[in-house]
Amino acid sequence: MTQSRTHEATRRLLFLGFVIGAFALGTSENVVAGILPDIARGLHVSEGSAGLLVTAYAGTVTVAGPIVTLFLDRVGPKKLVTGAIALYLAGSLLAAAGGSFAMVVAGRVVTGLVHTTIMVVFMTAAMRVAEPGKEASAAANITLGLSVATVLGVPIGVFLGQHLAWQASFWLVAALAAVSLLVVLAAFPADERPGAGSADGSAGDGAPRAGLRGLWRPEMVIGICVTALTGMAALTVVTYVAPFLTQGSGVESGLIVWIMLAYGAGCVIGNTLGGRLANGRVLQAMVGTVTATLAVLAVLLLVSGSAVPTVIVTVLLGLAYFATFPALNTWVASNSQGISPNLALALNSSAFNIGIALAGWTGSAWLDSDRPIENLPLIALPPAVLAAALAWVLVRRRRTGSGQAAPGQDPAGEAHAGSPATA
Fold it and tell me: Which of 143, 207, 348, 388 is the most exposed place for a label (fewest CB within 10 A)?
């Protein structure tokens, strides 16, 4: 009994470290946009140049994430995650203490290099140490850190940056990363053997190229495409939500901050609900939540122009979209035969960021074309329809037997044998 309680306490502590770390990453990723003028003034650069700090981080995450994860996949998971968090801490400190624009950019690039690796190891470890049948909820705990960062971390970081100094936002991220590192060092299970750590327990030849086997497995590729398309659909509206609400539906600009807080709360609820729905029913949850996101976008198009209904449906969009995360991440990880779940989730993360980029581009093109801004959800519908259609393709494949999990693989989302075995 005592051993069981100790095990549970250690697991809870580990999950806390994961959530704090994800909170740090989410805050760092988004806080710069809110303090751009302060950074520009402090470093004596234009606001356009300061905006490159966002590009440097996001671009590094998208491009380098899968590459870094692939080449470090044979490192033991505890060594990998603690080393990555330590590097993230160092990059955050460099950005906070940087006396020049070049140093701050360097700090952002360093943190961007390991962002994806940290998140995917958090997620695969969380799924592995979770109680049987609750792997999706464990994955949702990690994305919960990102959700809460949107609701609380970013506003706090912006407040500190505006009222103390812009460096204070990066000091906050560094402090959170340090706490996460200490907790993970204490609670993360030791690597089973030196050099172990292929999260799928596959070949031990040590060649990164070996991790590319199964890269084109249909279930995984379709899941990654659904992630990119769903993100593109939802974020086409969310990226331009302020003009969409104010110019398109007549919402007062002073209410936007409160609406975004409500939207953030919807994201947190959706993330938690999505994890519970996906426990043991990953495919059904994925189809349901992706289809729900499509339905909400369709309703948003119908009610746009009317202030109150538009605000309500916008909040529901956050709930529906964030509910897709646990199922999509768990599906991709559990269908990664031939490559490790770490690499699969890294590719899924890059797909998400590609979706963000496409959303920004298509939304900008719509706004610049002088078309009615209240019809913005119209261009979000095609990727949403395609995402839902692909999700239903997976259902058909499963029903016909062409999408069965490989022997020994739990289609409900059990992480693979190379992940930490116990907490």
Answer: 207
Helix 135-148 to helix 101-129 angle (10° resolution) is 150
- Which DSSP string corresponds to 247-291? HHH---GGGHHHHHHHHHHHHHHHHHHHHHHHTT-HHHHHHHHHH
Report helix, strand or coil for 332. helix
> How confident is the model at residue 338, as a pLDDT?
63
63 burial via Cβ count (<10 Å: 0-12, 13-18, 19+): middle
Nearest partner of 350 among 119, 90, 30, 100, judged by Cα: 119
Task: Give the helix/strand (H/E) hosting 62.
Answer: helix 52-71
Average pLDDT of the segment spanning 204-221: 60
- Distance, in Å, from the CA atom of 327 to the CA atom of 227, rounded to the nearest integer, reads 10
Q: How far is 32 from 285, CA to CA, in rounded Å? A: 34
Average pLDDT, the chain: 78
Which whole-number Å values give the CA distances from 356 to 32, 91, 181, 246, 278, in the listed order? Answer: 17, 24, 29, 22, 24
Query: 221: buried, middle or exposed (CB in 10 Å: 19+, 13-18, 0-12)?
Result: middle
Write the DSSP string, 158-211. Answer: HHHHHHT-THHHHHHHHHHHHHHHHHHHHHSPPPSSTT---TT----S--GGGG
Q: What is the pTM of this model?
A: 0.74
Amino acid making up residue 140: A
Contacts for 334 with CB less than 8 Å, ≥ 6 apart: 282, 341, 405, 409, 410, 411, 412, 413, 414, 415
Supply the DSSP symbol for 327.
H
Q: Identify the pLDDT of residue 293.
A: 96
Query: What would the pLDDT profile of 83-101 be if each residue is shown by its tens digit?
Result: 889 999 999 999 888 778 8
Once rounded to an integer, what is the mean pLDDT over residues 184-204? 57
List Cβ neighbours of 238 (8 Å cut-off, separation of 6 or more): 263, 317, 318, 321, 359
